[in-house]
Amino acid sequence: MRLFESIIDANHRAVAGDAGAGLHPADYADALPVVALTCVDPRLNAYFPNALALPTEQFIWLRNAGNIITSTLSSTMRSLALSCAVKGGREIAVIGHTDCQICKTPTMALLDKLQALGVDRSRLPENINDFFGTFGSERANVIKACDLIRNSPLIGPKIPVHGLMLDLETGQLDWVVNGYETLQTHASPGLPGNVAPPKIGDLMESLGSFKDFALGEMKFPEMKIGEAATRVGDVLAQRAGRLEAEIGQTISPAAQSVEQLAAEMSQYAEKNWPKPPPIRVKPTRLPPAKKNPLPPPIRPPADFRRGQRK
Question: What are the structural domain ranges in the chain?
Answer without folding.
Answer: 3-187, 192-268
